[in-house]
């Protein structure tokens, strides 16, 4: 039988979100109903509300979530009722050209639920990143569920569902940070600080945090930065070069996603170094640079999608490292809030006062 639950909905561009009654249909053959235990408030949810992703309103927001599998479709084999899962938006298909060439983290045809959740009047909802987890329950494809250690704190490990995984993966997967490498991270919000934590986990020797906010630089130190650069006081490129023997960092990660920060990342790397763009630019942003600089500096210029993660491979490993005390994921949870506090959390997030607010149900 369809179920009625509470959910946070963005009805129109820029309008405050509202707590609405939503209808969860019975799961299709490969679908799963998950009882949500916790869901982080991510910038992507705010982008949806502001119309920055697409205009397919109304949206059911929320996607950084963990919970318990409650109901499964008749063809589901990946999870069982009662499993504790972290939700992900890269449910790989196994059949596209990326999957077939052994790079499923680039899957071009990821799965979502076969049916739509709706408002009471039947209006179809667009779930954020195919998940929609600012709700008591949500409907997803079985491949969007990754089983992890059930003793883990849902408010902490649910953050692997998006921003924290994006940052960790930008360092560990896309940037391929190795032991003894020098790493600079520009932008020390949730994603940037996760990149710092990932660089530390990978064994980087020098980890430089760059931001214009002194509070964020303090957070970065707590997550593994060995040096900090206040870009409001000094030239970030010169400071990074000075801290790396005049050469520049082996890997520079742009967690902001603006033309000016990408240029800083480009010129702050060593010859043949790597630039990783994980911050999300807007469609109107453009970049103009001398082509000779690309040729003469060599190296790699990469974009990181979801930290180039493979949830089935990465989530359980990272949860285990957290449980062992080797990855301080709990430091990303700044506050725990109720479902009807999401709009206020957007304001707090925009002011840079939190790494993550987490809705706990």
Topology (SSEs and partners):
Blueprint: E1 3-10, E2 18-24, E3 31-40, H1 43-49, E4 59-60, E5 64-72, E6 84-87, H2 97-100, E7 118-119, E8 126-127, E9 137-141, E10 145-147, H3 154-157, H4 163-174, E11 182-186, H5 190-201, E12 206-211, H6 214-222, E13 227-230, H7 236-243, E14 249-254, H8 259-267, E15 269-277, H9 291-297, E16 300-303, H10 311-323, E17 335-337, H11 342-350, E18 357-360
Parallel strand pairs: 4-8, 11-12, 11-14, 12-13, 14-15, 15-16, 17-18
Antiparallel strand pairs: 1-2, 1-4, 2-7, 3-5, 3-9, 3-18, 5-6, 6-10
Helix pairs in contact: 4-5
Pfam families: ADH_N, ADH_zinc_N
Domain Enoyl reductase (ER): 14-359
InterPro entries: ADH-like_C, ADH-like_N, ADH_Zn_CS, ER, GroES-like_sf, MycoS_dep_FDH, NAD(P)-bd_dom_sf
Describe the model.
By secondary structure, the protein is an alpha/beta fold. The protein folds into two domains: 192 residues, Alpha-Beta Complex (Quinone Oxidoreductase, Chain A, domain 1); 138 residues, NAD(P)-binding Rossmann-like Domain (Rossmann fold, 3-Layer(aba) Sandwich). It is 26% helix and 26% strand. It contains eleven helices and 18 strands. The strands form three sheets. Strands 3, 5, 6, 9, 10, 17 and 18 form a seven-stranded mixed sheet that branches. Strands 13-12-11-14-15-16 form a six-stranded parallel sheet, with helices on both faces. Helix 8 links the parallel strand 14 and strand 15. Helix 4 packs across helix 5. The radius of gyration is 20 Å and the shape is globular. It starts with a strand and ends with a strand. Keywords: Metal-binding, Oxidoreductase, Zinc. It holds the Pfam family ADH_zinc_N. Its cofactor is Zn(2+).
């Amino acid at each position: 039988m369809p179920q009625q639950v509470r959910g946070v909905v963005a009805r129109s561009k820029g309008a405050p979100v509202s707590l609405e009654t939503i209808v969860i249909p019975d799961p299709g053959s490969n679908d799963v109903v998950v009882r949500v235990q916790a869901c982080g408030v991510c910038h992507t949810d705010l982008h949806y509300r502001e119309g920055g992703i697409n205009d397919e309103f109304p949206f059911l927001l929320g996607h950084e979530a963990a919970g318990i599998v409650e109901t499964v479709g008749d063809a589901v084999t990946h999870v069982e009722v009662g499993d504790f899962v972290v939700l992900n938006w890269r449910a790989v298909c196994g059949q596209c050209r990326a999957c077939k060439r052994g790079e499923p983290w680039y899957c071009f045809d990821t799965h979502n639920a076969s049916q739509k959740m709706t408002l009471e009047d039947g209006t179809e909802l667009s779930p954020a990143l195919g998940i929609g987890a600012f709700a008591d329950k949500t409907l997803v494809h079985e491949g969007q569920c990754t089983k992890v250690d059930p003793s883990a704190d849902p408010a902490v490990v649910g953050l692997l569902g998006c921003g924290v995984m994006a940052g960790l993966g930008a360092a560990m997967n896309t940037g391929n940070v190795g032991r003894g490498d020098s790493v600079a991270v520009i932008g020390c919000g949730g994603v940037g600080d996760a990149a710092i934590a990932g660089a530390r986990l990978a064994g980087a020797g020098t980890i430089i945090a760059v931001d214009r906010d002194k509070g964020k630089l303090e957070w970065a130190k707590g997550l593994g930065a060995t040096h900090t650069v206040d870009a409001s006081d000094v030239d970030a490129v010169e400071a990074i070069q000075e801290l790396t023997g005049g050469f520049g960092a082996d890997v520079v990660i742009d967690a902001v996603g603006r033309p000016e920060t990408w240029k800083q990342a480009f010129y702050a790397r060593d010859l043949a170094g790597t630039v990783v763009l994980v911050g999300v630019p807007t469609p109107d942003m453009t970049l103009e640079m001398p082509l000779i600089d690309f040729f003469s500096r060599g190296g790699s210029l990469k974009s990181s999608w979801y930290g180039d993660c493979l949830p089935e491979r990465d989530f359980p490993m990272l949860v285990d490292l957290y449980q062992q005390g080797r990855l301080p994921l709990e430091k990303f949870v700044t506050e725990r809030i109720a479902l009807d506090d999401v709009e206020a959390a957007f304001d707090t997030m925009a002011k840079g006062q939190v790494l993550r607010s987490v809705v706990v149900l």
